[in-house]
Amino acid sequence: MRYTWFAALLLVAGCTARSPEAAHDEQVRLRRSLEKHHGRYVASIETENRLVTETLAWLNGNAISASRAQAVAEARRLTDRWSRVYFVPRYMHEELRFDKYSSAQVRAVQRQMLDRLKRHYFQLHDYQRYAQNAAASEMHHTPPGRLPRELEEFRSGLESREPSVDEIRPLIEFLKK
Question: Fewer Cβ atoms within 10 A, N terminus or C terminus of the chain?
Fold first, then answer.
């Protein structure tokens, strides 16, 4: 009886204690999971920053001065481009959220990474929806030379935002090598 209890205690202690090698392996596994997506993520950030400039140029130009048909066609094109940018962090989040880690440090980094990706893709989805609503409404009932209220909000949001940067790489670099 005494030996059974002691064996069970050793078994439980062995299962919960993480060796430094196992923690390192999890760090490597998290870095590898990110590396599969990181190139596309960085490219999408660069595209996003260019797209902000192009969208502002449209909102300050053709959305106001061009024919409604041309403005709507450009809104549709912007909708497609915003949706392509949106799906990169969204896909990364979906792929990375199911990985399980035992190390508290690795779990904390994964949680921060997922939180940042989610916040990022929610913002991009809002931009895509603004452009989609502009295309769907065809901007009717708006006097010439003016933007609908919703597109005014879109413009002010784009003007006030900071350029996007890679927030994921610093989290991964935080992990010990």
Answer: N
